[in-house]
Specification:
Length: about 375
């Protein structure tokens, strides 16, 4: 007696077709290409962004995500991606768009650290630093837990800017954080270390009105300290000059008031500059500070190092400031990232482990062979 197996073959065909559809694309697409393909109502500005990102790719071929961020600059790209809906608390529209596009570009088959390769960091938070800001001599468990949660969120934002898909950032104990970055390139490891460990304590301090005279005479003033500003000359050499700077932030203006930061090349020299925007309270303080000190120099100090000391020519009510210094594009990008996401307490990398992607390739190849043999 013959059976009609047509419905079975149709069912098998449907299941196979559905499975193939769900796994497409199996591997990741090129990010800049996907960014261009997914955009709507593009114009000349958008084309300029794509061209700039591809030009940067010639110098930094392994940094598609970072190249796009630099190319976008202060442009609002959200208008080109009407399908991107911002979540509550998302203020950085550029990062929101890039993260959504990256998710669309990533393959459906997710490879973890063990298969794709990458780097794992075990980070330890220095809880002793919290004692200096706590009203009690002993830091409570609530304070430690809050600082650890804050550090996890800050490090997540810093790691996001590397464009690593599916990173893992989670607490590991009372004062440790586990960070797994699948697919992190060897060339990006040092940059990742720098951004993870940098506390990024930013201060705006006033320069002594007679700084040059006092420095030349080898003299100082109470409440001031001698810092050195590095400047790159036309010949490319970096020179240092002493500047007498107040020891404390003026009017308490520190990096905690920075709302966002980005890198924009100087329109004359092409050197990278870091442009920052303060929140409403920071903008008010900055406007007041610049209004009361027209004609004086304002020092921008990060982690105790003087980056620049520009002259205040007029009141700046816009709530925006910029940092220029002798750093390259990669260093500027790192600095802008940590300025936008400061830590409450310093952290250090306690352990680092790297996984060679070749091990994952062997495992994948073995799995594919087993699947084929099993199907046969």
């Amino acid at each position: 007696m013959k059976r009609n197996n047509l419905w079975k073959w149709l069912l098998v065909g449907f299941v196979v077709a559905w499975s193939l559809f769900e796994t497409y694309p199996p591997t990741s697409k090129e990010l800049i290409g996907e960014f261009e393909a997914r955009a709507k109502n593009t114009d000349a500005d958008f084309k300029a962004i794509i061209q700039s990102a591809r030009d940067l790719g010639k110098t930094f071929p392994d940094r598609s995500y970072g190249n796009l961020r630099v190319a976008i600059g202060t442009n609002n790209v959200l208008k080109y991606f009407p399908w991107v809906v911002l979540k509550d608390g998302e203020t950085d529209t550029t990062r929101a768009v890039l993260n959504r596009v990256q998710k669309e570009a990533s393959g459906k088959i997710k490879l973890g650290l063990d298969l794709r390769g990458g780097t794992s960091f075990l980070v330890e938070m220095d809880t002793k630093q919290l004692e200096t800001v706590s009203t009690n001599s002993v830091v409570g468990s609530d304070t430690k837990e809050r600082a650890l949660i804050q550090a996890v969120e800050v490090l997540r934002k810093r790691v996001d800017k590397f464009g690593v898909s599916e990173p893992v950032i989670q607490p590991a104990g009372e004062n440790q954080i586990l960070i797994q970055m699948p697919g992190l390139l060897e060339s990006e490891k040092q940059s990742a270390r720098n951004q993870i460990e940098k506390a990024a304590f930013l201060e705006f301090r006033m320069v002594h009105p007679n700084s040059d005279e006092l420095v030349n005479q080898g003299l100082s003033e109470p409440g001031y300290e001698l810092l050195y500003e590095k400047q790159k000359g036309k010949d490319g050499r970096v020179r240092s000059s002493g500047v007498l700077v107040r020891k404390k932030a003026e009017k308490g203006l520190t990096g905690k008031y920075v709302k966002n930061a980005g890198v924009i090349p100087n329109y004359i020299t092409g050197a990278p500059e870091i442009h920052m925007a303060f929140d409403s309270e920071g903008a008010r303080i900055f406007a007041e500070l610049t209004r009361e000190n027209v004609g004086r120099r304002l020092a921008i100090v990060l982690d105790g190092e003087l980056y620049s000391a520009p002259n205040i020519n007029e009141e700046i009510p816009s709530g925006r400031a910029q940092i220029s210094g002798s750093f390259d594009l990669k260093e500027a990008f790192e600095l802008a990232n940590v300025l936008e996401n400061p830590l409450e307490a310093p952290v250090k990398i306690k352990e680092e482990r790297g996984v060679d992607p070749s091990l994952g390739k062997d495992s994948i190849a073995s799995g594919v062979r087993s699947a084929i043999i099993g199907m046969i």
